[in-house]
UniProtKB/TrEMBL annotation:
<dbReference type="InterPro" id="IPR024951">
    <property type="entry name" value="Sulfurylase_cat_dom"/>
</dbReference>
<protein>
    <recommendedName>
        <fullName>sulfate adenylyltransferase</fullName>
        <ecNumber>2.7.7.4</ecNumber>
    </recommendedName>
</protein>
<keyword id="KW-0934">Plastid</keyword>
<keyword id="KW-0548">Nucleotidyltransferase</keyword>
<dbReference type="GO" id="GO:0004020">
    <property type="term" value="F:adenylylsulfate kinase activity"/>
</dbReference>
<dbReference type="InterPro" id="IPR015947">
    <property type="entry name" value="PUA-like_sf"/>
</dbReference>
<keyword id="KW-0067">ATP-binding</keyword>
<keyword id="KW-0808">Transferase</keyword>
<comment type="pathway">
    <text>Sulfur metabolism; hydrogen sulfide biosynthesis; sulfite from sulfate: step 1/3.</text>
</comment>
<keyword id="KW-0809">Transit peptide</keyword>
<feature type="region of interest" description="Disordered">
    <location>
        <begin position="493"/>
        <end position="512"/>
    </location>
</feature>
<dbReference type="InterPro" id="IPR002650">
    <property type="entry name" value="Sulphate_adenylyltransferase"/>
</dbReference>
<dbReference type="GO" id="GO:0000103">
    <property type="term" value="P:sulfate assimilation"/>
</dbReference>
<dbReference type="InterPro" id="IPR025980">
    <property type="entry name" value="ATP-Sase_PUA-like_dom"/>
</dbReference>
<dbReference type="Pfam" id="PF01747">
    <property type="entry name" value="ATP-sulfurylase"/>
</dbReference>
<dbReference type="GO" id="GO:0004781">
    <property type="term" value="F:sulfate adenylyltransferase (ATP) activity"/>
</dbReference>
<feature type="region of interest" description="Disordered">
    <location>
        <begin position="55"/>
        <end position="75"/>
    </location>
</feature>
Length: 512
């Protein structure tokens, strides 16, 4: 049953039409259906005895559901733009934890004098996330109070008392040896990166117990073996968590030829302002872009224009942190995305492409809240969400780990995301009658072909062509090159293994 808040925050999609989208903090006429729903809901929550309250609440929720259906029949043209200017960051101010130039020399001199903690590649990705304000208003790795709020409430209470979404714990694990090396009297700790260089100073820190089982169970909803992020990062991590205020010595760079795509939230906001954006809609992905994705993004822009916006800008925002081994690596995905823009599948004039530095958890409805929240801090006020966002197959059973519809449902109700407008996917598939991707029409389902990621990978590995119109030719060629490079690596590995396993021939000794 939809809540009133959910009604106001979700741009639902019917077969052919999107519903009207109302402001997140509206002013209603006292005689409007929306106001009546609010009054009814408030009365339900404050009525006399428990039975009356339950009955009233059911009636109020029914009224809210009816309102959602009525809204679904309205035209988008009846609603104008929601706001002018970019959405404010969580907490009101975008956090920047990179040491100012005036203090850099002093901090660089201080870092070697402090107890140090070596951090992993994934820890470094979280330093990157925190330093640029993606997790605003968080100012460092979580202390215990913040960790418990994130773990149990998927949100934290900021200093001004407002609630902000924070569904993923951003924490730094240390082991017993590291804990002892810090000592009891230290007031600050230097974090040393994988390359052996100091990257940050953590001040006013606290150390608390890392209950890994609880963390895994509450984040993923299961403790089954085989969860990629858990196996890569948590399972063998330390039994303690180190939280505190972070001072990052230098802007994080990867020197992989992709740093020019790694725009910070502040840089993205500046770019949106430069382009005079009056709406920003974000699309998160960790896979190559096919023409079905492009159809969805271009159709979203069309819908926003029909709602009265003048210049909606797309943030095409592939995830750039840790991903599981069978995902297409970032460098190949960026090559493919470039081809999508070069060949005009997406309009470069209305698209900003950048890398989101967060590691991937594959934690479904819990993680998709983090993905959405971070885009608010980058200036996006619309977020496109599809089937099974941030999901994966169950690691030990032949089924999805999460209900594929729960991600978009959770986003419409999530605490601290009330300002964000959710845009659910329409389902796109290959229309055989038109030779292109189109929105699925169940009335003629036999005309549509669904091409799974597995099928696409198999085509690329074998060098086969996909149906014309499924993906731009240049983008498809990038994927073919990637998967065929894997085939060559596997062939070479197989040959090496065969040589190593071949029986050695012992020669007869040479007579003296």
């Amino acid at each position: 049953m939809a809540t009133v808040a959910g009604v106001l925050r979700v741009l639902s999609v019917s077969n052919n039409n999107a519903t009207a989208l109302a402001p997140c903090s509206p002013k209603f006429s006292s005689s409007s259906p929306t106001a009546a729903a609010f009054v009814s809901l408030r009365g339900a929550l404050t009525s006399g005895n428990l039975r009356e309250r339950s009955n009233s609440l059911q009636q109020a929720m029914g009224q809210a559901h009816s309102l959602q259906q009525q809204m679904g029949q309205q035209s988008r043209k009846s609603v104008g733009p929601i706001r002018a200017g970019l959405i404010t960051p969580d907490g009101g101010v975008l956090v920047d934890l990179i040491v100012a130039d005036a203090l850099k020399e002093k901090r660089l001199a201080e870092a070697p004098t402090l107890p140090h903690v070596n951090i992993t590649k994934i820890d470094m990705e979280w330093v990157h996330v925190l330093s640029e304000g993606w997790a605003s208003p968080l100012r460092g790795f979580m202390r215990e109070s913040e960790y418990l709020q994130a773990l149990h409430f998927n949100s934290i209470r900021s200093m001004d008392g407002t609630l902000v979404n924070m569904s993923i714990p951003i924490v730094l694990a240390i082991d017993d040896v590291q804990k002892e090396s810090i000592g009891k009297d230290a007031e600050a700790v230097t974090l040393v990166g994988p390359d052996g260089e100091p990257v940050a100073i953590l001040r006013n820190f606290e150390i608390y117990k890392h209950n890994k089982e609880e963390r895994i169970a509450r984040t993923w909803g299961t403790t089954a073996p085989g969860l990629p992020y858990v196996e890569e990062y948590i399972r063998n991590s330390g039994n303690w968590l180190l939280g505190g205020d972070l001072e990052v010595l230098e802007r994080v760079k990867y020197n992989d030829g992709l740093d020019h795509y790694r725009l910070s939230p502040a840089e993205l906001r500046a770019e949106f302002e430069r382009r005079n954006a009056d709406a920003v809609f974000a699309f998160q992905l960790r896979n190559p872009v096919h023409n079905g994705h492009a159809l969805l993004m271009t159709d979203t822009r069309r819908r926003l224009l029909e709602m009265g916006f003048k210049n909606p800008i797309l943030l095409l925002h592939p995830l750039g942190g840790y991903t599981k081994a069978d995902d297409v690596p970032l460098e190949w995905r960026m090559k493919q995305h470039d081809k999508v823009l070069e060949e005009g599948v997406l309009d470069p004039e209305t698209t900003v492409i950048a890398i989101f530095p967060s590691p991937m958890h594959y934690a479904g409805p819990t993680e998709v809240q983090w993905h959405a929240k971070a885009r608010i801090n980058a200036g996006a006020d619309f977020y496109i969400v599809g089937r099974d966002p941030a999901g994966m197959g169950h690691p030990t059973e032949n089924r999805d780990l999460y209900n594929p519809d729960h991600g978009k449902m959770v986003l419409s109700m999530a605490p601290g995301l009330e300002r964000l407008n959710i845009l659910p996917f329409k389902v796109a598939a290959y229309d055989k009658t038109k030779g292109q991707m189109a929105f699925f029409d169940p009335k003629r389902s036999e005309d549509f072909l669904f091409i799974s990621g597995t099928k696409m990978r198999n085509f690329a590995k074998s060098g086969e062509s996909l149906p014309d119109g499924f993906m731009c030719p240049g983008g498809w060629q990038v994927l073919v090159e990637y998967y065929q490079s894997l085939n060559k690596e596997q062939d070479n590995d197989s040959k090496v293994e065969q040589v190593q396993q071949a029986p050695k021939v012992l020669k007869d000794p040479v007579p003296v």
